[in-house]
Amino acid sequence: MPLLEPKPEVLRPGAARIPSPDRVPDVRATGTPEPLRGELTALLGPKKVLWTVSDLVKYASDASPYRFVPQVVVVPEDIDDISAILSYAHGKGREVVFRAAGTSLNGQAQGEDILVDVRHHWAGIEVLDDGARARIRPGTTVMRANATLARYGRLLGPDPASAIACTIGGVVANNASGMTAGTTRNSYRTVASLTFVLPSGTVVDTADPAADELLAHAEPQLCEGLLALKAEIEADAELTARIRAKYEIKNTNGYRLDAFLDGSTPVQILRGLMVGSEGTFGFISEVVFDTLPLDRKVSSALLFFPSLTAAAAAVPRFNEAGAIAVELMDGNTLRASVSVQGVPADWAELPKETAALLVEFRSPDEPGQEAYERAAAAVVEGLDLVAPVASVTNEFTREAKVISGYWKARKAFVTAVGGSRPSGTTLITEDFAVPPSLLADACEALLRLQAEHGFDAAVAGHAAHGNLHFLLAFDAAKPSDVDRYAAFMDDFCRLTVERFDGSLKAEHATGRNIAPFLELEWGPKATELMWRTKQVIDPDGVLAPRIVLDRDPKAHLRGLKTIPEVELIADPCIECGFCEPTCPSHDLTTSPRQRIVLRREMMRQPGGSPVETGLLDAYGYEAVDTCAGDSTCKLACPVGIDTGAMMKDFRHQRHSPREERIAALTARNFKAVEASARLAVAAADRIGDRLLETVTGLARKAVRPDLVPEWLPEIPGAAPRKLPRTSRVGASAVYYPACVNRIFGGPEGHRGPSLPQAVVAVSARAGKPVWIPEDVAGTCCSTIWHSKGYDEGNVVMANRIVEAAWGWTAGGKLPLVVDASSCTLGIAHEVVPYLTEENRELHRELTVVDSLVWAADELLPELTILRKTGSAVLHPTCSMQHLGDVEQLRTVAEACAEEVVVPDDAGCCAFAGDRGMLHKELTASATAKEAAEVNSREYDAYLSANRMCEIGMDRATGRTYHSVLMELERATRP
User: Fold this and answer.
1) Peptide bond before 35: cis, by omega within 30 degrees of 0?
2) CA count, 13 A, side-chain hemisphere, 808
3) Per-residue pLDDT averaged across 619-634, rounded?
4) Is the pLDDT of residue 673 over 90?
């Protein structure tokens, strides 16, 4: 064991705990039992079988209120692996559940036996027919697919609120729809063809002209059974009429029986049945969508009403005017949304009775937009709107930023309201639909029912389609609370079916929590046909038992998860998974959601249990060490949970007092440390990469991998010993070269000015000269200590840099321009909690400007572009995302290059200062998709604006990245 390896016990929860009834039992502490583990490892290989208790707990939770611990998790790479898994399950009498993003809300992605992760290795999109169609793999998120399609002026029909995280496989398997899809733009209506694997292992491509012939040869009984069911349904006029009527409104409860009416052959019937089948009929390996036009002329308004029923009553009028979306939010939803960044703070003061409609019109051209706006104005004129707080305008707007803010608040419904629920309570999201003409009555009835059962109302939904969502929070550890939930569900389901003839699941699919009520909605005849359909397709019941179909009347009460309290920063988490696609480590070790899930399981356990010990042993590397600390999870989370900050705090807790003292000593003596580091980098050029890799590798083994960086061949040479000479007199700004740019030089083989020289030169050309203080050496943005959790050192350097910056800028009279985006973020925001009260006052007077913003807003208007490179690919860093200056990166790049590309898969590189040198596997995993996209073609320039991230991308792509400021200097050089 390395000399300074931290003890796992340091992170053992210290609070007194009452063991939870749903804790993982001690017998599961050793993970997957034999012979299951050994047999699957022999079948698939060790890298495709996840078997430790940490692995199993990570996959036991998802966005639903249920929690089932699988026996094993497998990660297939291709259809051959899928077929092998299904064959094994058949032979051994085992059960299989597929899971992609884990954003489903009803437990349909949870299994108790073999859980198959089909997000890893299953992403990708191929655009067909100039964007009219797209072939998409099931692990691709909706947002990622739409990013590619947007270049062609197209988009997908389904648009769920979880588009940032949910994957195509889950969207099709649940027939998820969203804000605008309704009944005409959902998966059932827009899927052109599917490729899927049946439970038997047979692969079907519905686009193949010979598909029916091949299926008849491979599965004759299946084909006969499907055609027999079709004939039986079509012979029953009353049943046929009932099926058609059920799909006049949104409905995802049960199987799509209209597939038997719409399809004329077994393959066509299967194509329809697979949509919304929730993984119970097979694995969807590829989807070809018919895409829709991306109408870019958008007009939206957030209109406020005195009551929920008044808002609901206005919905039909906007539908008639041609609105593509009419979204409803009640008072509790609006008030809870203040936790979402950008939502007006005065919404917290809205009366409880207030409700709002988010109304949107989209058109391909200006005349169409103007016509829609006239129609909307006519509707608004006849409404009694209210403006209870100052921020309410009740006006339509075309401003993209305002519209984006409206949608951000709406899409955060589940997470914002869920995040404000009482600590320790489980959240259930219900979803139903009624004929749109009955929406106002349904709202009134729902509010009364919630009050009768003691639940706080929180209602939102796709009002244009009669589709409402509401949330219930209760303590799953209390039998009385579970009983209250059960009584509510009984009354709610009867109300929806018997009074409104509605759908118990409009778009979230049946899952586990509506399965017991399937027959209530569909009646015995249709329900029995669904059972028989399952028997025809999956006669051995291998796939997803107890999902969709379950004869247990209390099935929805089994497996409800408790939510024990954890660290305050993470406690609001509802495990929605929105954070996962942005997380650099999610394909390597754990995601932010999984870090919290693991922590919650520790809290469920009695202190010192074998399960807790097993989780702690894995948590150090899998959660703490391989967290990049970039906090992009905070940006993706609608309520801003910063799991990265929690991991930094855990790093701090693992430090010994001696380590903290040494870190503080390096901060106090950073001038010497900085000079030594520059000399060491310069000496490395003469020593050679291989020897340095060997020496640092040995040191890492002896000391600790998370303390000693590994030498990488991509590390550049040393920066010039002296910074450019500048004058304070007449300076327009103070220029602060970050310590990484004072230590490391530019790209190998670069001919031209260094970054500091480039910033000085281009600023002078624009008539806005900058001044570099003579005493910048020994100062730093403090991110070095902050990212590693060294609080004492962080305090030292944070206060030093603010005091120095205040003096340099003459008390804030001049802006402070910083040439590395992570350092800008550090000085502008991250140092604040570590400042003294006096220095916080000084900090408030500072104007900290990222060099990208300085170049785009201040320099470019005054510069003459003399030459451009042909093409440039950009790497926007996570710090740019936090600062909101990605557009400035693009603006400067577009001034320097004829073609500028931001990869669709661009994300945090996870180099994170030196973390990419401590755990190079983290950067390799984080950059894999972006690197593949970058290397799919040649570019003339590879640009970013942060030296360490540029090194990380050099390593990932084999290309040479440099600062866009250096490119701007070249483009404007006389």
Assistant:
1) yes
2) 28
3) 95
4) no
Please tell me the distance from the alpha carbon of residue 76 to that of residue 116, in angstroms, as a whole number.
7
List the structure tokens of 786. Answer: 């902050």
The amino acid at residue 507 is E
**pLDDT at residue number 1:** 43
Burial of residue 17, with CB atoms counted within 10 A of its CB: 0-12 exposed, 13-18 middle, 19 or more buried: middle
Q: Nearest 5°: phi and psi at 2?
A: -55, 155
3-state secondary structure of 341: coil
Query: Cα dihedral sign for 390, 396, 399, 405?
Result: positive
Sheet of strand 897-901, all strands in order from the earlier edge strand to the far edge: 897-901, 869-874, 941-944, 961-963
> What does each C-alpha distance from 864 to 185, 867, 897 come to in angstroms?
48, 9, 14
Q: How confident is the model at residue 692 (pLDDT cuts 50, 70, 90)?
A: low
SS3 931: helix
Taking the CA atoms of residue 634, residue 640, residue 641 and residue 646 in that order, the dihedral angle to the nearest 10 degrees is 60
**Amino acid type, 338:** V
Beta bridge partners of 560: 66
Beta carbons of 743 and 677 less than 8 angstroms apart? yes
- What DSSP character marks residue 744? B
The Cα–Cα gap between 783 and 288 comes to 46
Rounded to an integer, what distance in angstroms lies between the CA atom of residue 306 and that of residue 323?
22
Alpha helices in 47-133 (DSSP H): 53-58, 79-92
Partners of residue 330 on adjacent β-strands? 355
Determine how many CB atoms are found less than 10 A away from the CB of residue 385.
17
Task: Report the distance separating Cα 99 and Cα 433, nearest Å.
Answer: 26
Sheet holding 848-850: strands in order across? 770-771, 733-736, 816-818, 848-850
Alpha-carbon gap, residue 233 to 257, rounded angstroms: 9
Which bin fits 124, alpha (ψ -120 to 50), beta or left (φ > 0)? left
Q: Which residues pair with 125 in a beta bridge?
A: 136
Confidence of residue 691 (pLDDT cuts 50, 70, 90): low
CB atoms within 10 A of CB 268: 18
Distance of CA 432 to the CA centre of its chain: 25
Q: How many CB atoms are closer than 10 A to CB 812?
A: 16
Q: Residue 418 and residue 337: Cα distance in Å, rounded? A: 10
- Parallel, antiparallel, or unpaired: how do β-strands 869-874 and 897-901 relate? parallel
φ, ψ of residue 563 to 5 degrees: the values are -125, 80
pLDDT, tens digit (0-9, with 9 covering 90-100), for 502-512:
999 999 999 99
| Mean pLDDT, range 81-106, rounded to an integer | 97
Largest CA distance in the chain: 92
Burial grade of 613 (CB within 10 A; 0-12, 13-18, 19 or more): middle
How far, in Å, CA of 51 to CA of 30, rounded?
Answer: 9
Is 650 in contact with 658 (CB distance < 8 Å)? no
User: Is the distance from CB of 285 to CB of 86 less than 8 angstroms?
Assistant: no
Instruction: Tell me the C-alpha distance between 505 and 315, whole Å.
Output: 21
Q: Where are the alpha helices (DSSP H) in 304-438?
A: 308-321, 331-336, 366-381, 400-411, 413-419
Strands (E), 232-346: 283-290, 292-293, 297-305, 325-330
The pLDDT of residue 14 = 82
What is the rounded CA–CA span in Å between residue 218 and residue 222?
9
The pLDDT, as a whole number, for residue 34 is 97
Per-residue pLDDT, averaged over 679-708, amounts to 65
Beta strands in 118-178 (DSSP E): 125-128, 133-136, 154-155
Q: Please enumerate in sequence order all residues whose Cβ is within 8 A of that of 704, keeping only pairs 6 or more positions apart, or say none.
A: 2, 3, 4, 5, 6
User: Average pLDDT, whole number, for the chain?
Assistant: 94
Query: CA-to-CA distance for 915 and 897, rounded, in angstroms?
Result: 32
Kindly state the percentage of the chain with pLDDT values over 70: 97
Give the pLDDT confidence of 759-788 residue by residue, as tens digits.
Answer: 999 999 999 999 999 999 999 999 999 999
3-class DSSP state for residue 779? coil
Asked if residues 195 and 203 have their Cβ atoms less than 8 Å apart, the reply is: yes
